[in-house]
Amino acid sequence: MVTTDTASFLSVSGTAAGGESGGTGAPSRAGTATRPDPPDRGQKPQESSRGSRPSVRAPIHDETVNTRESETALKELASEIEARAWDLALAAVEEGLVDDQIPSLQRLGQLGQLGDVPTFIVELARELVDPQPERLRRGSQLAAQARDHARQREAYGFAPREIVTEFLLLRRVLWRFVSERAAELDADEVLVVERRLNDTIDRLVTECVVGYFDRATSELAHEARHDQLTGLLHHQAFVQELDFELERAARYGHGLALVFVDLDRFKEINDTLGHPEGDRVLQRLASIFRETLRGSDLAGRMGGDEFAAYLVEADEEAGSRLLGRVHDRIDELIAQGELPPGCDLSAGLAHFPGEAADSDGLFRLADQRLYEAKRSRTD
């Protein structure tokens, strides 16, 4: 599953990022600045030979001084990361463009390539000196921004793997930046920085992955209940919703109206104007129902050129009033050239509880009245 693969990917990347600086590729532009020695820290130790890990200063045994200097070192490092957030984000983008590690970046301008990455770097810097797990708890502002970033990346055509890779490359860039300053930190400080960077990036990646799957799951659930062409509920989903509303209407003593319609001359439209035009007529009729129904009412495509709608807390005349609005809108669209001349519909109405006690009874009665209305048009 993605969760396991992502965790494995993060673990491997974290190990690679924490290795020698020579193993992370060409140095980024963000890591070229040299930082002056902080006050009272003594002389900076001589760096070891090329390719070896920089030496670290000997531990200070005075616990009070060590804690104070440790906090100062982390604050200085965090301040430098925050100040260089834009450059570090650009370095991460450059990493993504190398060997097409993130191909989708090629299609974007610089601002699009950066996205929210500079903001994430600033938050990472704050976590170094003031770790606050609540910053990335579900529902927090930063967690929401991570999910929005993932959704925006997906809208730009990023694959899920590219979204995760973006954060893994950011970790590599940040760790290289820290490694170049490792001589100014003792061993414990290096471990603290590594752990806090990794933990925060892991949480960002988790939020992005969860956001992606939340959206994908929501879309799948929507598609499972809705007609692909019109976007209305399909037959089974509509009947399920109708049954629920009938139970509620019976409990509270409300009325409910069912409207069952069928397009007239639809076969003729398909045969003379073509099936694409027939599809467009169906989509336009679905839009008319959405425009004319109240927010509490629902419409569905029952199949072919048949549609249905139910109106909750409705009297016996509510269905007729709805049909009047629908017919008026159809006439307007014909006059505007958005529907073919002669486009119209026939309808059958049924009302709960006076005429039928359940959905089957309502549909049988409405279908019978629809057939009678259609036959009267052909006579």
Tell me what the structure shows.
The protein is 59% helix and 9% strand. The protein has helices at residues 2-17, 63-83, 85-97, 110-114, 117-129, 141-155, 160-179, 187-225, 235-252, 266-273, 275-292, 318-335, 359-378; strands at residues 233-234, 256-264, 298-303, 306-312, 344-352. Strands 1-3-4-2-5 form a five-stranded mixed sheet, with helices on both faces. The chain is elongated. The protein starts with a helix and ends with a helix.
Let me know the number of strands. 5
Find the structural class using helix and strand composition: alpha+beta
Across the major sheet, the strand order is 1-3-4-2-5
Overall mean pLDDT: 81
Query: What share of residues is helical?
Result: 55-70%
The N- and C-terminal alpha carbons lie at a distance of 62 Å
Q: Can you tell me the number of structural domains?
A: 2
Q: Major sheet, described briefly?
A: 5 strands, mixed
Proportion of residues in extended strands: 5-15%
SSE run: HHHHHHHHEHEHHEEHEH
- Using the alpha-carbon principal axes, give the shape: elongated
> Unreliable stretches, pLDDT < 50, 5 or more residues?
1-65
- Computed CA radius of gyration, to the nearest angstrom: 32 Å
Q: What's the total helix number? A: 13
